[in-house]
Amino acid sequence: MAKAPAFRCSECGWTSLKWVGRCGECQQWGTVEEAGAPVGRVRPAAVPAGRAARPITELEATDAPRWPTGIGEFDRVLGGGIVPGAVVLCSGEPGVGKSTLLLAVAARAAAAGRRVLYVSGEESLAQVRLRAERTGALEPQLYLASETDLATILGQLRDAEPELVIVDSVQTVANADNDGLAGGPSQVRDVAAALTRAAKSADVPLLLVGHVTKDGSVAGPRALEHLVDVVAHFDGDRQTALRFVRTSKNRFGPTDEVGCFEMTGDGIVEVPDPSGLFLSRSTTPLAGTCVTVALEGRRAIPVEVQALVVDASTPQPRRVVNGVDSSRVAMVLAVLERHTGLRLGGKDVYVSTVGGMRLTEPGADLAIALAIASAEHQVALPRRLAAVGEISLAGEIRAASSAKRRVAEARRLGYQRVIDEDVALVRNAIPEAISAGRRESAPVRQPVAVPEF
Asked: What region holds the RecA family profile domain (predicted)?
């Protein structure tokens, strides 16, 4: 008789007869745990009165009640506000601004008359008090606690009776009945499950701060993301002040919305209209620049792409990129050489975006190609020209996703000429844009005044 597996991976369910430190299926460390006792055959039970299955057409669709946080960009990401009893997991790189944003949310809720409990497991009460004073988040209805024990935190929830709970972070809280280390898979799963049960039983929204791994995913077992209702990710570069908030899971709203924020000395500030953050401030057209319209969620944002082409100083030409995908730039360079006649094999090519914006979508290919061609010919493109489109290896210009929305945003911002899929081939788009740039930059001859006699 075969022996039942005694150990199971908490991530993927892989089983083993003996304990191992690394899962043989998903290759995760520390996720193999002892399996519980085998469950016997379950007999069907009688369905209670009023809980029988009903046709979906007889059910009424009601929207979940929400209350706004007071921060419009955060409400946009959540789908209109916080739902009572919802559990929101906020993850991001260290120092990106997770605690600062959630402290601002707590202060806005406390200013509206709601009792808020902010539990910090990483900072002392004095440190949180100093940050709240710096960001203007001092409110009498905002209660602070510095705890890492799960039972004590549950006691704080029972005694304070808050209307909003924030725990920073879930990896620092530990259950005394669990022998695992704080932050381990079993501890994170137990802590998240206990806090979720407490929040939903009291119908109180809960905001959890989560750490991330080296690849940017949420640290801990995958069950953590399944337990919560919303998973929000904070993105941003430390070298720039811009921050984006996106949701990869949202049971109460869409997952294609993006919130835009800016980190300042006084805290984090929302940016409702980021249309001018990724454009240069030069008033005269410059060679090697082209504007495209990127799509962040449902939001169309104009972004300026800059390129520089110089003679190579080494036998191996350099290809340096910043904010764009290096593989797509290499593909665009190959298409330009093959279909437009530009000889860039012996040139150093530098491509960058303005404002630290990252362009990883194919819709920026045409703008990159026009910027490189403009830099090579040393001709500035027309001032009110934008480019949106994907370039194929055959030299064709394809429509980008949500092309109509991008073109409409470019028109709203005053770009009179938008090069997109209407120009089918890149070998036609490049000469047309360069010729238009030469005509616009050509000096206008003033009429000679004829003296009167």
From this structure: 63-212
